[in-house]
Amino acid sequence: MEKSLISLILNRKSVRSFTDKPVSEDDLVLLLKAGMAAPSARNLQPWMFVVVTNRQILKKLAERLPYAKMLYEAQAAIIVCGNLSKAGDSPEGYWVQDCSAASQNILLAAEAIGLGAVWTGVFPRAERMNVVSEELNLPDHVIPLNVIPIGYPKGEHSPKDKFKKENIRKDSW
Questions:
Q1: Residue-wise pLDDT tens digits, 50-79
Q2: Is the pTM of this model over 0.90?
Q3: For the chain, first and last CA: distance in Å?
């Protein structure tokens, strides 16, 4: 079931409770394609995606990450990382912005195909970055930005209306 782009954006929601129905490899590949379709500064694409479907790894991450307990129920997770060896001519480049755009594409794609997902923050919290790096055996030049638990939503989830005029500066408002 496809939705119009604006409807999709306005109806995206953070899903933190999942059924035990597996997420297909085809759906995970589609989410990764959506992530890789994101814009990136100078088209460097300094991202690396780690797909986790192993129940033991999901459980270890859930145990050790304070705001990712939904990994106990999630059937998969995509960890969006910055690959500093591809980040450009400065130590950091624009990997955070590029990987954030990729993450948003993944979240929107999940919504579009009927999956639930939520962004759980890792970077810049050293203790969280260390957990993810240790559990996934990431090399030093790969920095985890977030963990996105993925699955079929359990129960009803509603989007939040986040539009607030006070967050806008415009001459006539």
A1: 999 999 999 999 999 999 999 999 999 999
A2: yes
A3: 37
